[in-house]
Specification:
This protein is an alpha+beta fold and 141 residues long. Helix content is 16%, strand content 23%. The strands form two sheets. It has a four-stranded antiparallel sheet with strand order 1-6-5-4. It starts with a helix and ends in a 21-residue tail after the last strand.
Length: 141
């Protein structure tokens, strides 16, 4: 017997969204350059690319996001994320509530808040979950 309620529950595979927010407050010129480069990296690489002739457009870059341990190994207890497109990169240049810069040539802000909105470009499937290291008797239902 077919279950007509399954059609109501399942609308198709979904692409998972991921949001990350970071507050960056440079303490010296080297850190200020690094913060500006981080912001530029995300904004530039989420943008549409052109070909050498500028006749055709190419897709933006995709991002591989991975949670890591302090030894730079994949974190074993946090979910894995498939390749993602960066949908939005928002920068708050006054996260502390007031306009304040360092007295350098670039007038570097004393603090930045960056929000990144990613979305996987491929849905997660049942076979993507590898439970070989966890006995089924330990998985709650």
């Amino acid at each position: 017997v077919l279950n007509p309620n399954m059609e109501l529950l399942f609308k198709g595979p979904q692409l998972r969204p991921f949001s990350f927010s970071f507050k960056m407050s440079p303490r010296e010129q080297g850190e200020a350059i690094a913060v500006r480069n981080i912001i530029r990296f995300f904004k530039q690489n989420m943008s549409v690319r052109t070909t050498k002739t500028n006749v055709f457009l190419k897709e933006p870059y995709v991002f591989k996001i991975e949670y890591q341990t302090d030894e730079n190994n994949p974190h074993p207890s946090i979910n894995k994320i498939k390749e993602c497109a960066l949908l939005d990169c928002s920068v708050n240049y006054t996260p502390d509530g007031s306009y304040m810069t360092f007295n350098d040539e670039e007038r570097t802000m004393t603090s930045y808040s960056i929000s990144l909105q990613f979305q996987e470009i491929e849905p997660i499937y049942n076979v993507d979950y590898n439970t070989e290291d966890v006995p089924m008797s330990h998985i709650g239902y």
